[in-house]
Amino acid sequence: MGRTVSSFGEGMSRVFNCLVAFVLLAFILPLILFVALAIKCDSPGPVFERHRSMALGSRAFFRLTFRTTIHDPQDRLAGWARGRTRVGPFLVYTRIVALPQLINVIRGDLTVLQRGRLAKSFLGLTGQSCECVSNRG
Questions:
Q1: Mean pLDDT, the chain, as a whole number?
Q2: What is the radius of gyration, based on Cα positions, of the chain?
């Protein structure tokens, strides 16, 4: 019986996440289109970057962000070695770079309100959790 309550809570959480993500995407769509145009005018290449991330439960997924570095189609350079685009520093400073992650919320990879804990396998065998993961400066 406890399992049903948990499933109901998880289902309600999923509905809440999707509803919030759709509403936010509807409001910020003009900003997303403007940023995509700025990235395309600044340098050739895709608008979005995919970063491999680890979800709770040790499940891997690709987190979407706006591209802030010069595109390297052959992947010869590491991400830190590529130069920034002209709009890149502004996108990072204002955190606009993370807006495409709302698509990850709709896919079910992320949640709107993160608990800020890492999977045990990521932290090692100690089983400790890190409460400050989602708190960036």
A1: 77
A2: 17
Cα–Cα distances (Å) from 101 to 24, 26, 109, in that order, read: 11, 14, 9
Name residues whose C-beta falls within 8 Å of residue 137's C-beta, 6 or more positions apart in sequence: none
For the chain, the structural domain boundaries read 2-112
Q: Which pLDDT band, with edges at 50, 70 and 90, does 72 fall under?
A: low
The rounded distance, in Å, linking the Cα atoms of 112 and 17 is: 6
* Residues facing residue 122 across a β-bridge: none
Distance CA 116, CA 110 (A): 11
| Tens of pLDDT, residues 73-122 | 666 666 555 678 889 899 999 999 999 999 998 998 888 876 554 444 44
Which residue is associated with the tokens 């520093």?
89
For 105, other C-beta atoms within 10 Å of its C-beta total: 19
Report d(CA 37, CA 122) in Å as an integer: 37
Q: How many CB atoms lie within 10 A of CB 116?
A: 12
* Spatial contact of 18 and 106, defined as CB atoms under 8 Å apart: yes
